[in-house]
Amino acid sequence: MTLKDQFRFVRQNMKKNKLRIFMTVLATAIGCTFLIVLASVGFGLHQSIVKETLADRVVTEISVHSAPDDEGNYSRPGEEDIRYLESLEGVKAVTRRQNLMQAPKFSFKDYETEQQATIAHMPSEVKAGFELSKGELPSEENEIIVGYHFQEQLRKKSAETESQQENQPNKAEHYEGSLIGKSIDMTVKKVIDGEEKTRTIPLIISGIGEAPSREWMKDQNIYISESILKQVESFTNTPKGMIDPEGQKHNLEKDFSGYDEVKVYTESLEDVKPVTDQIEREGYSTYSVLKEMDQINMIFTIMKAGLILIGTIAVLIASIGIYNTMTMAVTERAPDIGIMKAIGANPKTIKRIFLLESSYIGLIGAVVGTILAYVISAIVNFGLPLIIESAFQEQLPKSLKFSSIPLSLVLIAVGICLLVTIISGVRPAKRATKIDILKAMRREV
Amino acid sequence: MIKVKHVSHHFEMGKKGRKTVLPVLHDLSFEIHKGEIVAIAGKSGSGKSTLLNLISGFIRPVEGEIWIEGTKVTDLNESQFADFRLEHIGFIFQNFQLIPSMTAYENIELPLILKGLDVKARKKKTEETLEKVGLGQFGDHYPSELSGGQQQRVSIARALVSNPPLILADEPTGSLDSDTESELLDFIKQLNEELGITFLIITHDEEVASIGNRTIVVKDGQMVQGG
């Protein structure tokens, strides 16, 4: 018997009891929809969190936090560590930054602001991808680079207090002209015996950094050179310009040497893992987006598997309906099966017809269930944020997606649905092959 | 064509643990040659229907061997016997055994579908056979829309359609009136003469038995005449 004829038989048989078949398909479809929609929440949240995590992040960046010394004590990474990190295969650049341990006052004409200054190694920053929107990199020791939004912070001396209170920069109050090549004064202070003393260091802005990729991100940094730091240190007589009213003696070498922030940039995404592994083997502790992603992915994989498992229970419940439908079909058709067997139908053919029927129910249920799941998913993604926003008066992130149905989820759900329905049809199909020809023809089954 | 060698059969009756054995056939042996019409006659309960069911493979003998067309069918498993029936044996039953949800055409076509013939070949064969049994215009009728004689003709057409060398008929006239009965017997004779089909007919009716080349009479599970 050809497969085409078997399908014809199945369709003919299904037409005999349309309502029962419809209800069974409906139960299977609901089970499949439940499975997909439930798991789609896991997929949707995973996608949203990954998107949120990766937004504005450099995936080839590895932060290196501390390095052990000969005695096993952890300290900040120093020059030797930088040289080691730069020597690794697959490393494109190693940026290192130190923070000035006070916020100097920057004054330009009638404008001024207090900002944190960062001592950056510009060649490695540029190698890592730092770009300027205006001007050029510093060539003299007193030249600095400012962040894209630094200018917004330069406010008129009289307007500062009012503006700070409102915490919103007023356009009319901050400097609007070009800063490139302009001289700006950095005033640092120190406290000796309760008395505050200041020193002004004249600087020249040589370049302005590029705007961050997202509108809401602000780059107000000021990048100064190592020699400017030395000038500050010679004035304060403390490491990194720290204001120390107590006048404590600090162990410069031990407590403050090294870099506050060291970042390794790899040549490609594939290099991140081997480079991270190698750095960690040397005893450094590292952090990278990829490492964070591994953890996120693992948690969500477990969550998704759990949701699929719970959803499968719904399909299993639907399979009871299929088992019932198929058992009734076998009982009802027993005389016909008896006749078919008598005239030469192979038991395997009989079994195949019934298995095809249960798979057919499962397939239709899975297809209908998948379409239904997509509709529900779209409604949830559209409607739920509106409900939450109106009920709780909270603005949800635009990238947040409650439900996402990737092709892999559809394939998993359809696979589970088909498997469960085929299994539930096996016993009735086997029963059909065992029907006694004589009893069936006498209508005794 | 058919060789029955020392076949014995009994049924186990009653509940498990308290079963009683009911002997039905005892050491039966006979042979049927190609192209013969052989009637197996006997009273009700003599074991003639059991004999037909054993030859059909619907039940298996407790003892003995059955050979059909050189194949020891008693050695075949259920699946092999089903394939053997499809190729070599046609059936005519007392109460026709047509599938009620299928039209006359579809009932006749069924053995060809099981054989895996393509649609075109099936259509040609089925239409030819419908014509042969004189039901050309009744193809679209369901069994319930046909008379007893017409239903039996559909049953015969289904047995004939795959050209089997042997047709087993169990009380083929049992549900028919006398006019239709003689019409059917003439038709069987005609098929035997024209196509050389071997017929084994189970009957308790002497008139039916008379169309056979010979009659095997079974009484109390033993052959008393015609072997």
Automatic annotation (TrEMBL), chain A:
Residues 22-281 form the MacB-like periplasmic core domain. Residues 161-170 have a biased composition (Polar residues). Keywords: Cell membrane, Membrane, Transmembrane, Transmembrane helix. One of its GO terms (molecular function) is transmembrane transporter activity. GO terms for cellular component: plasma membrane. Signal peptide: none annotated. It is a multi-pass membrane protein. It comes from the Bacteria. Residues 309-436 form the ABC3 transporter permease C-terminal domain. It is found in: Cell membrane. It holds the Pfam family FtsX. Its main location: membrane. The chain crosses the membrane at residues 21-45, 298-323, 360-384, 404-426. Coiled coil: none annotated. Belongs to the ABC-4 integral membrane protein family. This is FtsX-like permease family protein.
From TrEMBL, chain B:
GO terms for molecular function: ATP binding; ATP hydrolysis activity; transmembrane transporter activity. Transmembrane segments: none annotated. Pfam families: ABC_tran. Signal peptide: none annotated. Gene3D superfamilies: P-loop containing nucleotide triphosphate hydrolases. Residues 2-227 form the ABC transporter domain. The keyword Nucleotide-binding applies. One of its GO terms (cellular component) is membrane protein complex. InterPro entries: AAA+_ATPase, ABC_transporter-like_ATP-bd, ABC_transporter-like_CS, ABC_transpr_LolD-like, MacB-like_ATP-bd, P-loop_NTPase. Keywords: ATP-binding, Nucleotide-binding, Transport. The keyword Cell membrane does not apply. Belongs to the ABC transporter superfamily. This is ATP-binding cassette domain-containing protein.
